[in-house]
Specification:
Elements lengths: L17 E10 L1 H8 L13 E9 L18 E4 L2 E2 L5 H4 L10 E2 L18 E4 L5 E2 L7 H5 L4 H11 L7 E5 L3 H12 L4 E6 L2 H8 L5 E4 L6 H10 L4 E6 L4 H8 L2 E9 L13 H7 L2 E4 L5 H14 L9 E5 L4 H11 L3 E5 L2
Parallel strand pairs: 8-9, 8-11, 9-10, 11-12, 12-13, 14-15
Antiparallel strand pairs: 1-2, 1-6, 1-15, 2-3, 3-7, 4-5
Helix pairs in contact: 4-5, 4-10
């Protein structure tokens, strides 16, 4: 994808819209995949969906209360969901608004004559009607606030659908930004052990700063027998497996060691890949529950904001975001992300 800077007039706000001046944007993995052509997206578009910003103006009948019933005013610093959709749709009523009718996704929409200013790599963005919005109640550093509406909210969704994890052994595969946040959330929810699995030793070491009690380098458990031996030596059974890696071979390896009555949650498999090896009889006899989650719902966003408000000073989240870039240096930001593989690259728009 080729980046291009262009100037446009800010259109008059229509019914229910809110104009926001963007403060900060971070580059998610999906942004990198789109930029490199590995992920197909509507084009032309404005990339960036991990965003925060301040309210500039309200359109007619725009919401003046956020998702926690906090008053919204001009000048407020806010975060918002990656999506807007019809709240009366049956999917929304089931708690899956990210798949509901009229779905609009920030940072993923095509630029048209009537549809603009909908991504994070811009000075302004227009929030569409039915966008979940949250106003933080404490002063959170901009880079940390920015990752809430993708990384933190998705991790919150994963923990939610894993159900009650208190006192259980939770294995988290893939210790990128979502994985380390999930480690911290699992710890805060009272997990007995949090086992982090990855191919990168540095990231495994960092996961310990986010609550991981055990770490496993994949090279050391390349066979099911080796993994089984590790579990036996450490006297650990896997009650819940949350996958952020999206790697079929890793999923197969870990899933086969899931305990009877265990839960598996798939998050990272968001791109075309080979099938996993899954035997139906094994699922039945082991009474496994297997779930998948794409994006998150409004309650997950609220949980994400609350978690960061309460816990951000206890974890070195800010150190995982490499800043120093602005709109003029966006191309350099992408190239840095591709070459250096940081957790996140941050672009300041203040």
């Amino acid at each position: 994808m080729k980046l291009q800077i262009s100037e446009v007039e800010i259109p008059a706000l229509t019914e229910g819209e809110i104009l926001v001046r963007i403060s900060y944007t971070t580059l998610c993995k999906s942004d990198i995949l789109t930029y490199t052509g590995k992920r197909q997206e509507k084009n032309p578009t404005i990339l960036g969906h991990e965003i925060c910003g301040t309210i500039v103006a309200f359109g007619k009948n725009a919401p003046t209360l956020d998702g926690r019933n906090t008053k919204l005013e001009i000048g407020d610093l806010i975060t918002w969901a990656i999506f807007a959709s019809d709240p009366s749709d049956s999917m929304s009523m089931r708690g899956i608004p990210q798949k509901a009718a009229g779905l609009f996704k920030y940072g993923h929409e095509q630029i048209t004559d009537t549809n603009h200013l909908h991504g994070g790599l811009s000075e302004y963005i227009i929030l569409r009607p039915h966008t979940p919005i949250i106003k933080p109640l404490v002063n959170i550093p901009l880079p940390v606030l920015t990752i809430i509406n993708c990384a933190v909210a998705t991790a919150a969704g994963a923990i939610r659908i894993a159900e009650n994890i208190e006192g259980k052994n939770i294995l988290i595969a893939g210790t990128g930004m979502l994985g380390v946040i999930a480690c911290a959330m699992a710890k805060s929810k009272g997990a007995k052990n949090v086992i982090a699995v990855d191919i990168d030793q540095d990231r495994l070491s960092i996961s310990k700063l986010f609550g991981a009690t055990h770490t496993i380098h994949l090279d050391t458990i390349v066979s099911m027998q080796k993994f089984s031996n590790w579990l036996a030596i450490n006297k650990i059974s896997i009650d819940c497996f949350i996958d952020f890696s999206g790697e079929p071979t890793t999923i197969d390896l870990i899933l086969n060691q899931l305990s009877v009555g265990g839960m598996a949650v798939f998050i990272g498999s968001t791109y075309p890949q080979q099938n996993i090896t899954l035997n139906a009889e094994t699922i039945v006899r082991n009474i496994w529950t297997i779930k998948g989650l794409h994006n998150y719902n409004q309650q997950d966003l609220i949980e994400a904001v609350s978690f960061i408000e309460q816990e951000y000073q206890n974890y070195p989240l800010g150190t995982l975001i490499k800043g120093g870039f602005n709109l003029d240096s966006c191309a350099l930001a992408f190239e840095y992300a591709i070459k250096e593989h940081p957790y996140r690259v941050g672009i300041s728009l203040k």
